[in-house]
Write a structure and sequence with these properties.
This is Rhodanese-like domain-containing protein. The protein has a single domain, classed as Oxidized Rhodanese, domain 1. Helices cover 28% and strands 16% of the residues.
Length: 115
């Protein structure tokens, strides 16, 4: 499914529990609440930390990029696609994730919130 900017997009409901998730929100947003298994690389540090993604991303798997509402993650998805990677934007971001009843944890391990 495509979204207005031409970036491949997937809805939260289509994600499986073991799908690889890349959270590109800033540190304060991540600390308040995130998907437990997500890899966190803030968009502001993304190019400098790109190697972390290539080390941790599944070799043949898709990278699901998420932010708060879908704007920043769309930009990162477009960049990854340009690099030849299989990446999709998670439509609605963490707001949609939380609204769908998916678990959100805080950095301390307790229940989190999307800010």
């Amino acid at each position: 499914m495509m979204f207005g900017s031409g970036v491949p997009t997937v809805e939260v409901g289509a994600l499986a529990a073991d799908d690889f998730l890349l959270d590109v929100r800033e540190a304060d947003e991540w600390e308040a609440g995130h998907a437990e298994a997500a890899l966190h690389i803030p968009m502001s540090e993304f190019t400098a930390r790109f190697g972390e993604l290539t080390e941790k991303a599944p070799d043949a798997g898709r990278i699901h990029v998420i932010c708060r509402s879908g704007g920043r993650s769309a930009q990162v998805t477009a960049y990854l696609v340009q690099q030849g990677m299989d990446a999709v934007n998670v439509g609605g971001g963490m707001q949609a994730w939380e609204a769908a009843g998916r678990p959100v944890v805080a950095s301390g391990g307790g229940p989190g919130a999307v800010i």
